[in-house]
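Catalogue entry: protein
Contents: sequence, fold tokens
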Amino acid sequence: MPSAQQTATAISQADVDAFIGRWQNTGGKERANYQLFLTELCQLLDLPGPEPATENDTDDAYVFERRVDIRHPDGTESRGYIDLYKRGHFVLEAKRVSEHHASSRWDKAMLRAAAQADTYIRALPASEGRPPFLLTCDVGKTIEVYAEFTRSGATYVPFPDPRSHRIHLEDLRDPAIQQRLKGIWTNPDQLDPSKYAARVTRELSKTLADLARALEKDGYEVERVAHFIKRCLFTMFAEDVDLLPRGQFTELLVKLKATPEHFPDAIRSLWETMNTGGYSGALNSQILRFNGNLFQNINPIPLKPDQIQLLIDAARHDWSQVEPAIFGTLLERALDPSERHKLGAHYTPRAYVERLVMPTVIDPLRDEWKTVQAAAAALEAQGKPDKALEEVSQFHRKLCEIRILDPACGSANFLYVTLEHMKRLEGEVLNTLTDLGAGQNLLEMQGNTIDPHQFLGIEIN
């Protein structure tokens, strides 16, 4: 089967350049251009274009100007039109923003477009369900991507993350971006990270369980095996998210398989350097310091070649795509003989975790954040930037003081997912502070941030 990269090369670079050249300097109103822009984008990516609208909304599964009836809290109704709708895939709201991309005015205009799209999504008939993607489009310039794969009414968040959810016109030259857009149009669930995590979890669980079983058979105590596998697991993850030089830990394991007698010394050297930071002879690289005491009191277990191969098999997975929320589950089930029959079959998927976390913790905070944003915008419009800044700063302080307790935390999946979503929200708050000219205040706030100390768990084992 061809890779995504190979498939994407079918799109002619000349065609991409022509499309970019055609649209990069266009002006005009949103209504004059957005349908043509999106139609030509579909043609460029070899995607089916929107269909003619009908008199019956239920038949309009992929159309421009899809009609929705919006119910307001006071009991009144109004009519809205979704700029581009594809049932089960996305709602797209188009704008033609005259402000410069780097300006706070542009950001605010795009956030208003996202809020409008969210209103349309909530107005869709329940029988149609919520689409996994929300798109905003500054016509001829940028597409912003938000996702909510649970389709349960939770908040749409930047996809794949807040640093790369904006697709600018020039980004269309990137085959990976082309494939992302194709996935949104044709198979959105394939882009759900939890689907990959579920498959990899099954494979990794079996590999780690085989290693744990082999080490216990060799007479090593469960606690020592636990610490060893935990450190291996984290090192694999660090390698794939560029906290360690990419690929070098896997290469080290391959070399050590040929000389297993050097395995304990080489791994001890690496982990001791990870504990302090500095030059690692094992990787022949300068590496960061990893705090948290994970790499203190190192006592690596000597491994046989076949056992090192199990580590190599695990390391060759893309750990950057594995949910850190399930790391505890991986370790727990690899080590507990009574749990091994469940490997890969019964762990709490992220979607289930979010069905509890979102409505109880995150959605109320995001609702409050919307209120804060509106208040700050009003204050700024009144010429009171200092008060606007204080409004947002006060909300940030609140985020940093919240405490979350899970009284039966298990391997802390729920706490991790809550932490991740709160950090995403904090990122948006800090971006707003920057837009408001926080400057020096942001430097002073560096020591005041959401961190793991706010997330508490109780577990009997």
Q: What stands out?
A: The longest strand covers residues 62-71. Confidence is low (pLDDT under 50) at residues 1-9, 339-346. The chain has three domains: 4-191, 194-342, 350-457.
